[in-house]
């Protein structure tokens, strides 16, 4: 168990050769940098332009949620992005120390109902879930994580 | 290049809003202000020409959604044209293409408004 934990901690602190890690301040001005990186990483992983654009939007939404909701807009924190190329998929892990959410707390809006009763907000998670193959939330070593996976077709 | 610049011009009864760059949580306030200013001036028919819009996140969609009821209550509307593929994908994925009239180009959108008038 301890050995397993050590291995996990080592994995968190030391990226694999195929990993790419970026830490940004919790400020929306860096969103374009992050989405640009996500798009390039998707293309490098072998996705087409349209899919890469969708991945970058999903990352924009996820990082925006962290900055505005997990950190409540406070700009003196950090968001860590860890991009992992597995050969079959691109995994994007986003870590933060703000308010975490559990997967079972998430209720995605129904687009049909949304169109009937328009309102502001609530669409970011829906875009993330529609544009990525897997979205999950977790917590480890006192940090919260949002992980999104896109399989390479 | 700025993250977002917005050109607003009149085209008959409609106001054309042409954002250039991207609309996300960082730039949305600027976009929202441009739309709100038009509504405050009583310009309720707004055509969003998205030719130079590289992407829009849910923050930008929220800004549009926030005004749709007001403009329609005042016999106006928000129309869209020149959507790039990735921008169209966002609107379409969320079902917004059922909620807004989408045209391939500005001329078609304005012609449709002229027919209606």
Indicate the overall shape of chain A: globular
- How many domains make up the coordinates of chain B? 1
Spatial gap, N to C terminus of chain A = 36 Å
Largest sheet of chain A: 5 strands, antiparallel
CATH topology term of chain B: Transcription Regulator spoIIAA
Q: Rg of chain A to the nearest angstrom?
A: 16 Å
Description:
The complex is a heterodimer of chains A (153) and B (117). Chain A is α+β, with helices and mostly antiparallel strands. Chain A has a single domain (18-151), classed as 2-Layer Sandwich (Heat Shock Protein 90), CATH 3.30.565.10. Chain A contains five helices and five strands. Chain A has a five-stranded antiparallel sheet. Chain A starts with a helix and ends with a strand. Chain B has a single domain (4-107), classed as 2-Layer Sandwich (Transcription Regulator spoIIAA), CATH 3.30.750.24. Chain B has 117 residues and is an alpha/beta fold. Chain B is built from five helices and six strands; from the N terminus they run ββαββαβααβα. In chain B, strands 1, 2, 3, 4, 5 and 6 form a six-stranded mixed sheet that branches. In chain B, 45% of the residues lie in helices and 30% in strands. At the A-B interface, helix 2, helix 3, helix 4 and helix 5 of A face helix 2, helix 3 and helix 4 of B.
Tell me briefly what this model is.
The complex is a heterodimer of chains A (about 150) and B (about 120). Chain A is of the alpha+beta class and about 150 residues long.
SSE layout and pairing:
The complex is a heterodimer of chains A (153) and B (117).
Chain A (H helix, E strand, L loop, with lengths): L1 H12 L5 E7 L5 H15 L3 H22 L7 E8 L3 E8 L14 H6 L7 H8 L2 E7 L2 E9 L2
Antiparallel strand pairs in A: 1-2, 2-3, 3-5, 4-5
Chain B lengths: L3 E8 L2 E10 L4 H13 L4 E5 L3 E4 L1 H16 L3 E5 L3 H9 L2 H4 L1 E3 L2 H11 L1
Parallel strand pairs in B: 2-3, 2-4, 3-5, 5-6
Antiparallel strand pairs in B: 1-2
